[in-house]
Amino acid sequence: MSNRALLEVIALDAQDAIAAQAGGADRLELVTDMAADGLTPPLKTFAEIRAAVDIPLRVMLRAADGFAAGDVDALVRDAEALRGEGADEFVLGFLDETGGPDMVAVRALASALAGCRWTFHRAIDRAASRDALRKELSGLPGLDTYLTAGSALGVEDGLPVLLAEAGRGDEPGYEPRILVGGGLSLAHLPVLRGAGIDAVHIGGAARPGGWSEPVSAAAVAEWRAVLDA
Question: Which SS3 state, helix, strand or coil, does residue 66 take?
Fold first, then answer.
């Protein structure tokens, strides 16, 4: 069995997707509007990216900046429309006013996704209790990943949490894969890999010129090489 770590790269368009795959990305997260930290992309963008690359795509379901779900019915319609276009992996995550998971929204989307695999994103880093959130979401169909930095402040601050959670994979709520992203640097990779964490997520790090520039295949390849070292 291969022990290759998973490298997920944020793609905003087909140009990003092609460069990310060329650099060695294993999977893409598709979003639009990074000024709002990533929202649901248009159907046309999904279709263009799907036609451009053959690696897995996880599509963001998020209508506005922040971690409130907003119009859940609209999110469900977006999910159904994307599934109609062929999307089969997703990213979502919502908190309620107490800092707990918004189970109404999450359950509605999990139902609409009908078993499609999905990531609960960095809302976990803003939760009142990470442990309680994990246990409340435990067993939801399709949930196989948490995208997390271990802290709202980023990986450097959250590293002790990530390492601790990596050792709890046999506990209820901790079975989903840890996908590390948010202030992640190449220097963090040896520590994370040493703890058994085998999945990382990059966005700005794949764009040396900033978010106004496209993904650089060379930048992605550098991450691939360090992960594979």
Answer: coil
